[in-house]
Specification:
The chain is of the alpha+beta class and 293 residues long. It has a single domain, classed as L,D-transpeptidase catalytic domain-like. It is 14% helix and 21% strand. The protein has four helices and 14 strands. The strands form four sheets. It has a five-stranded mixed beta sheet. Strands 5, 7, 8, 9 and 10 form a five-stranded mixed beta sheet that branches. Strands 1-11 form a two-stranded parallel ribbon. The longest helix is centred in the first third of the chain and has 17 residues. The protein starts with 35 loop residues before the first strand and ends in a 5-residue tail after the last strand. 44% of the residues are buried.
């Protein structure tokens, strides 16, 4: 959640409303480019594609899958969206013992939610200045808060806080979040979902480590981006004739694209076996790496 167009290095609290043009992918045309569509018979076939594409996955057991389905439905009901169906939804469990993203789908509103795939993430790490507790709720991924792309440059700590060059930053706009420092008051932060440094920080996914944003594996970022998994609203704008430079012309969009990222707390009181803790921070120049995003 740093300043769009820059590599994360400082406070996330006051970025501009729109990303810098230098951070935005610009296809060599001024004409909106409609996507190709993946030749998938059903949305559940993305399970295999997820497993083939994403290099860090979690084997969620059936009981946990049902648990996340219920948490998702409860959150949608509370947000006034009980009938969301036939589209992908990303569920993020911010619980410190879990730290996982679960991609879910159901055919109809009367059907149970099913898991497409899951991967470790990092959410807000409290206890330090400028570190927010990642907020709970249903967040719509919309071009009203335009995404942008990582430049891949290093910050003062030698870290690519947004990940490798051209990785996509999913901007979810301003959100009310509890501060992780001081008296734990609530204030605004810019909520984003993005990759992290592939060499120094991706190994830490699975533990709280961000300033409030959601860090995801680089291969998951590529999967979501290339197949338009959460781009329903973006593709609608394209079909209306708008030019959205962040979308790549060679993308293969899903017919079951969704638009919601739902952040929950699964209530775990100990680390589940299917979501193992990372090995620990990498060390650089004899000291633990300290970075933020």
């Amino acid at each position: 959640m740093p300043v769009p167009g820059q590599t994360p290095a400082s406070s996330p609290v006051r970025p501009p409303a729109q990303p810098a043009a230098s951070a935005t992918y610009a296809p060599p045309t001024a004409t909106p480019i409609l996507p190709r569509y993946t030749n998938m018979p059903s949305a559940l076939d993305y399970r295999k594609l997820y497993a083939q594409t994403v290099n860090r996955t979690l084997p969620i057991p059936a009981t946990a899958q049902a648990h996340y389905g219920q948490l998702l439905q409860n959150a949608l009901v509370q947000a006034g969206l009980p009938d969301v169906a036939s589209e992908f939804v990303a569920v993020v469990d911010r619980n410190p013992f879990v730290q996982a993203l679960v991609l879910m789908w159901r055919q109809a509103s009367s059907d149970p939610w099913q898991v497409i795939g899951a991967s470790p993430v990092s959410t807000g790490m409290p206890g330090r200045y400028d570190h927010f507790i990642t907020p709970l709720g249903v967040f719509r991924h919309t071009p009203d808060n335009m995404d942008f792309r990582a430049e891949g440059t290093l910050n003062d700590n030698g870290i690519r806080g947004y990940g490798a060059h051209d990785q996509r930053i999913y901007d979810l706009g301003w959100a009310q979040a509890q501060r992780g420092w001081g008296p734990r008051a609530t204030s605004q932060m810019r909520l984003q979902m993005h990759s992290t440094d592939p060499d120094q920080l991706e190994s830490l996914l699975g533990m709280q480590h961000s300033k409030g944003c959601i860090r995801i594996p680089g291969t998951l970022n590529t999967f979501l981006d290339h197949y338009g998994i959460l781009d329903a609203d973006y593709e609608t704008r394209i079909r209306e004739g708008h030019l959205l430079r962040v979308l790549k012309p060679d993308r293969e969009a899903s017919r079951w694209a969704g638009r919601y990222i739902v952040i929950v707390d699964g209530g775990a009181t100990q680390r589940p076996t299917w979501s193992p803790a990372p090995r620990g921070p990498r060390v650089k120049h004899g000291a633990q790496i300290d970075t933020a995003d």
